[in-house]
Amino acid sequence: MFSLKDKVVIITGSSRGIGKATAIQMAEAGAKVVISSRKKEECDKVAKNINSNGFVASSIPCHVGKKDNIKNLVQETIKRYDKIDVLVCNAATNPAFGPIANLDDNAFDKIIQVNLKSSIWLVNEASHYMKKNKGCSVIIMSSISAITGTNDIGAYGISKAAEVALVRNLAVELGPKGIRVNAIAPGLIKTDFSRALWENKENLKKHKEKTPLKRIGQPEDISGVAHFLASDASSFITGQLIIADGGETISWN
Ligand code: NAP
Q: Ligand 1: which residue has its CA nearest to atom 11?
């Protein structure tokens, strides 16, 4: 049920962090993974490492905020593997910190373009090919900021909440074509993206104390969820947001 044998998987933002852990996990489960981010050398390194361990990966750089890059990512994948089974829309940005009252229009446009519109472009471009296969799955990396309010990352949270609405809608539209669509909401995970949050000792302590599991997450805490959602083990799940946050959002503390 958990095998991804011969599935072709595109993972955006997979040169490091959650995306890289997901690529390694899925390759080990038998998938042919496409490593993608803005920097070719970083993607090449991850793909080379996976291949040298006896699994299958290739590197196709793509800036997800650029539509022509997304088209190329899909077309190049089809050229190399002749099909697409799983999309992991994982790359994101957050150039705006602070209250919504101070939100800069350009920063907000960038957040929406990179975090939200990119997934619409990628799904529209790839679903045409996915319709032809059985057991296809789209996974969008949201965040617990989609379901909470903050003083610092509200604009990012808006984009992450919109991703969940997108997931529900795509699940309805693509379900009849056999494509499942789900989102994952990670809590605080130790990656470069969230460095400012866990490097601050006070903040780290606050998160650990509030979280029932008394720790922050590692990329592998999320890659297992992505693997599950990509596999037949989740064959009756679609349109859902799976929260993986050590229980932080259910805690009253
Ligand atoms: P990360 O370690 O910083 O990795 C981000 C990845 O995305 C890198 O491979 C980066 O490579 C790539 N990337 C950045 N901008 C891109 C763009 N415009 N186009 C294509 N690739 C781009 O981040 P992460 O923590 O793993 O985050 C992954 C996802 O998890 C994001 O959607 C984030 O919102 C979500 N998330 C993270 C946390 C957390 O605490 N870390 C919590 C909740 C949700 P390049 O620089 O080479 O492009």
A: 37
